[in-house]
Amino acid sequence: MFFRVIAKDRLPDLVRGLSTEFEVVGPVAKGEKFVLAPIEDPASLRLDYDTTVLPPKKWFFPPEETIMRFRVADNEVVDDEVYAPPRVLFGLHPCDVNSLLLMDNVFFGKYVDPYYRARRENTLIVGVSCTPSDTCFCNAWGTDETHWGFDIFLSDIGDSYFASIRSVKGAELVDRHVESRDITDEDTRLFQERTAAFKAAFSNDVDTSQLPLLLDAKFDSPIWEAFGEKCLACGACSMVCPTCYCFDVHDELEADQQHGRRVRTWDSCQFKEFAAVAHGQNFRDTRASRVKYRYYHKQWGYLSKFERVLCVGCGRCARACKANINPVRVVEALQTGVVD
Amino acid sequence: MAPRVVVVSLASDFGCQVQLTNMEDDLLDVLGLMDLTYWQLASSGHMPDAYDVAIIEGAVTTTEHVELLKDVRSKAAAVVAIGTCAVTGGIPALANTAGLETRYATVYGGGVAVAPGRIAPAPIDSIIDVDYHVPGCPIDTAEFLRGLSRVLQGLSDHMPDQMMCASCKVSENACFLEVGTVCLGLVTRAGCKAKCPSLGRPCTGCRGIAPDANLASAREVFARYGCDPASLASSLLVYNTAAEVTA
Amino acid sequence: MDTIMRGTHVSGAVPESTVNPYRPWPARITSIMDLTPQEKLFELRLIDSDAREAFDFSAGQFVELSVFGVGEAPISISSAPSKQGFIELCVRNAGDVTGALHRKQCGDIVGLRGPFGRGFPFEEMKGHDVLLVAGGLGIAPLKSLINHIHDDRHDFGKVTILYGAKKPDEVLFRYQFDMWQHRDDFDLMLTVDQPDDTWEGEVGLVTRLFDKIDVDPENTYGAICGPPVMYKYVIAEMRKKAMDVDRIYVSFERRMKCGIGKCGHCGVGHQYACVDGPVFNYWEAMNLQEAI
Asked: How many CB atoms lie within 10 A of CB C245?
């Protein structure tokens, strides 16, 4: 990899420079929280954010998206173009950078999702280092580190950023838009020191031993009934999850009933109708079975295909869940058999 | 042949029918799809004897309403309930909470003859079968259009069963419960795209309790966030029946 | 740029990455046959001749059928892969999309995507006896396998078909099966739970028919499709006949939206029915939570 050092007070130059070529999206304050939104002024960029309400997936796989327009009379598709402006996601934390790699496995592959792909190919990723909050547990999955999946990654080393540059495009943009210098041994020492402090700052230590196997062996464990009692079935966990990709598809007609659009929307396996078929059979009728499925799929279903768990430990679901279902506690309960 | 449509009013403030007139952009398209034979709010004609679709606003509050509904059901191929008054009993059904007669006595005083033939306010489908439901107080015009489209295509009724909370997250709204403000989004039927919280007001539950709502857990959530657990039921009473809010 | 999908059968000039797997091909309804009061058999032909020729499927696979304005539904293919140029879909009027399809006329156009999923291991079954067990609408995907075996009959040993329906008027493809009951190259048995005055055949659940058949366990492949409740009992009968767990094949119905392993609706245990199935062998199914 290629490394440069960028002084913190020069960073606005990079944002302004990128804005001349791209739509720049980054963390900004919304009330007490943060959201990923277009950056008009580099000063509004809040690289000190803890986490955003919604993860970066919304910029690749929007909550609601027209996937094609059609004409009713002859059942013909009239448009399935994708609008994908050149964009930079500026300031993603390691968990979120890694989440996109997990989403790629689903939306690429044998059948390529053209809507996701168009946006993914037109979007550059600039990551930034972070400080663990009390809901973070990326350390459990190794997603606290980024090795690829970004164009530029900015690690805070005090007055400067230790910038790891992954792509030609990233190198060109740094070169073109911001003053930077080569790294020194002292920069690398600072980077190691900061990394050690980051690793030591996690308050959660999740025992993931034999998790896929335990999910099977304890499939009938009473812990799921206990979580099912608490679960509000609201689906908030899935909406805020950077790796939940499930969607629903429906058709909507224009007022004239002659034209319409096929729309896909985010869906959740926590919704009761998620696994119900037309004849009335529902394969996951109870909240307990649905909570269980969410974990079963993330820690084993996805793993069985892609050799990674479908979780990056961002903690958004723990923050969003009004019923206090925290994945760290769920995994603990699975290990111990006890729900506190 | 375009379906013959009537719009019928029971007990309500006509707010949902006013919403229909607010569909400026689509109104002409919509009117072009149907033969609107009767709409009390917009014309002075009489109810015809034959029609295909009956759109009904309002709760059932009198014996006259009951007879009207039975007549409508015998004539219409499709009955569409619009607005929460029609779908759950809505605001009119609040009169039931302390006993109907007690309420009347409190409001009107004793010995005054008001509302002859009055009955306990109720949703339409407590009297007749309803084919389509468009909840909301008032209805959302886009949702009404989607519902109307399903009526015209002969598709099934399609009220969302989920809770509103998820749409609030999608809108990245601040959570009212987290600051101790009563918000009913965690048990209220989705479909409004979290309109009120997105405008800075908590959910008042105007679409009714979602069939999949977990009220027991919601009470615990209220307690945890410093809202009186009993306020869940009392707040829900505005748009739901007493039996539903204590489930 | 050609942005039309071709599922698994992309070939020639269209690179796979440029096709839109969500975009249906227009297909014309070329025949409609009433099978029962709830089920009709539709014959469909893709309008694009290249797409029609490229449409290559195996028994047990399914398509996504679109009626624009109403939506999409997964439907298993009932005709045999050996019959080219058209497909047949046996469709129960059970929802909005299937209801809209039932209201269509011959000559109308609908949308098709597919074929999708993993079908029955036809090549592997060759040279062996085959025992096919269907319940109700489960005959729809098995019909494809039955007809494919019929067209390659000399490649198979003994072929036994057990088919149970609730009532006589719910027996699907009866026009064909009534004739087949008299053939000596197929051992076909029909049974109904609720017979009427006209029914002269077997009465009771399909599992009762196992008393009447001989199975060579060393040499027999099984295939099962029916309502979810049926699998456990039919598999138990096959196991009683000492058939191997990995030679018993089951086809699962699950909710599906995309058909290509993305939307997540058809999860069964750690797999997706749309891409990993819908056909699984029993050993695989035993290792799938929530499957049977």
From this structure: 14
B188: nearest CA in chain A?
Answer: A234
**Residues B21 and B134 reside in one and the same domain:** yes
Within a domain: residue B247? Answer: no
Predicted-complex ipTM score: 0.92
Give C-chain residues touching B154 at CB under 8 angstroms. 99, 103
Domain ends where: C76, C96, C115?
Answer: C115
Q: Is residue B158 part of a domain?
A: no
Residue C31: partners with Cβ closer than 8 Å, 6 or more residues away:
C41, C42, C43, C106
pLDDT for res C11? 33
Residues of B in contact with A53 (CB under 8 A): 169, 172
- Rounded-to-integer distance, Cα B83 and Cα B85, Å: 6
Give the domain range for residue B19.
4-153
Is C1 contained in some domain? Answer: no
Number of domains in chain B: 2
Asked whether residue C2 is domain-assigned, the answer is: no
| pLDDT at residue A272 tops 80 | yes
Same domain assignment for residues C96 and C234: no
C-beta atoms of A255 and B172 within 8 A: no
Ordered DSSP codes for A117-148: HHHHHTEEEEEE-----TT--GGGTTTTS-SS
Residues A148 and A288 in one domain: no
pLDDT digits (tens, 9 = 90+) for B137-167: 999 999 999 999 999 999 999 999 999 999 9
Chain A CB contacts of C94 below 8 Å: 278-279
Residue of A nearest to C137 (CA): A279
